[in-house]
Hints:
The protein is an alpha+beta fold. Helix content is 45%, strand content 15%.
Amino acid sequence: xxxxxxxxxxxxxxxxxxxxxxxxxxxxxxxxxxxxxxxxxxxxxxxxxxxxxxxxxxxxxxxxxxxxxxxxxxxxxxxxxxxxxxxxxxxxxxxxxxxxxxxxxxxxxxxxxxxxxxxxxxxxxxxxxxxxxxxxxxxxxxxxxxxxxxxxxxxxxxxxxxxxxxxxxxxxxxxxxxxxxxxxxxxxxxxxxxxxxxxxxxxxxxxxxxxxxxxxxxxxxxxxxxxxxxxxxxxxxxxxxxxxxxxxxxxxxxxxxxxxxxxxxxxxxxxxxxxxxxxxxxxxxxxxxxxxxxxxxxxxxxxxxxxxxxxxxxxxxxxxxxxxxxxxxxxxxxxxxxxxxxxxxxxxxxxxxxxxxxxxxxxxxxxxxxxxxxxxxxxxxxxxx
Length: 385
């Protein structure tokens, strides 16, 4: 097994790192307008992404993108996570945001939804989470009931990023609540201007992300707007979330890398009581632990991504990557904040934002408690005797 990246991916990593170091980190504290990128900043970075040949790097070739594999995408995600200039959620500067679900549309649906998204004419959002069904989609209460020639959706969604800017939503709803997530959930394409949809409120969070709560009251959806067959929804949602979990892990590696860069430089310059912080064993141990954990996490991430590229099912490995990557990012952020002392709490440095975002990532797209519970079943199948 080769533990080194192939030459072309090493070159990709260097290209993205130069882009981040030269173009993005210098502007990261002035890039925002509220919780969004300033339009002129977004335009400049998108133009640069095209210039360096990374536009639509994560879009399959058959849809006009570069068709990069999982490992290549992880390399890009790692390097981009080293800056706080790009919003942790919804920060798309390499092309339109396309969920894996949209590639599963039939030809007619692609003409109405996927191709306009790729051309930048439509913006989607994904609506799954509910007040009583976050990590447990089987408890979903939003229903889609057949009524004549179509479906009627009723329910309530929470934590929906970008709902205010979306032209349509990929809505997860229960078509047979008795089956839960095992064939009871379906996915629908729902235009956001459909009567009965209401953006109830935008939630303030500890991060820059401001997601929405949405209510659906007797929202009528034509039968041609169901994706796949009834009961396929959980499968489509998992395709989205598996990719998202790998992105979480890649982000964790990138955040840890930036934090070590900051902590290494600062502790080697800062003196207290006549000695540099880097000469104190307590600090050295924190730095070395962060370094070892990051190197181990990167190996797991790259190995899992390579398996995905080879067509191997990475469901359980993606759980491990998500848990370990998010927890790594938060631990290293926390240590970096600690060694910086008071200045680490200020907005002069990116540490506090990385710390807040990293804490939120531990919860979203699969809390570690639930993922560990599922992994436990696999563990006992293999080691339970």
